[in-house]
Write a structure and sequence with these properties.
six-stranded mixed sheet, alpha+beta, 12 helices, Aminopeptidase, 2 domains
Amino acid sequence: MPAAEIDAAEWDAFASAFTGGGTGNAAHLLQTAAWAQLKCAFGWRVVRVALRSPVRIVAGAQILVRRLPLALGSIAYLPKGPLVNWQDAAQVKAVLQLCDDAARAEHAIFLKLEPDLQAGEEPAQLLHALGWQASPQALQPRRTLLVDTACEPAAALGRMKSKTRYNIGLAEKKAVVVRAAPLLHAAAELAAFWRLLQSTAARDNFGIHNERYYQTAYESFAPSGRVALLLAESAGRVLAGAMIFASGTRAWYLYGASDDAERASMAPYAVQWAAMQWAHARGCSAYDMWGVPDADEAQLEAGFTTRSDGLWPVYRFKRGFGGRLERNCGAWDHVYVPWAHRLYGAYLRLAQRNAPPG
């Protein structure tokens, strides 16, 4: 089946019905057509491949492709996929062969795969046998905190650290109100969120996308209602915000920001609590806080009070919401042009130092 024949509607119908093939997860946010729409607005192309029964797609992958300068070919990236039954080696092999064929047809120097699996769950022996190699360079965070949002809000509060519960209550006492931007005509709210992002990036020294990226992200998911832009306000001033996404039974916190003024209002805590309630109301059982330092729990707990580099301040904030630590299986590369792959790897090591999420 030529990749061009798998349009966004057909792909999303498959991805929405996907049950994880034994992993317990529905299709990841980064395998939705809306995510491809976002990335295609910023220099990527999408190629989709699939195995079919007589009536439907049974397994497949959504691959992002980006051309390199100077006629060097392209890079191919498969985030949080493929959507296969990982216990079915024949199916995995067949879909990865389709991915391989598609990447070669796009003159890719390599195909990077980041499965939606926890560390140790990937069929390493099979991947090695098919020519894949474990990569030291994952594009998405290796480790995250997952908060249970299947339970009632009172139970979720009870699992949080006492200081976090206190800060949520303090925000309420200080008259911090969280509101959701409208799904249509949210220009004013997006502009306010962008101003917060700029302020936060300058204060905390991290990279962000341009303003149009966040606008497109919101607008790509708004028609299906799978996004929320939450803004915390007090006395008419926007103090914190977060953009939350959902797919299936999972929600993700990808982008957040806060004003440096009135930090005592604890507005970021109010925003996160509102986001978790939004996820619960949508029927999401897990809220992914998207990225903490790649260290085990003992190291994280020993270091978060003293370290301020990298994602350590982020962990200090996120740990209080009572999530469980998970580490994914990382990245795998299928290399077609070794010298170009090495060159791109050197570039990526430099670029990732200040790369924005998503």
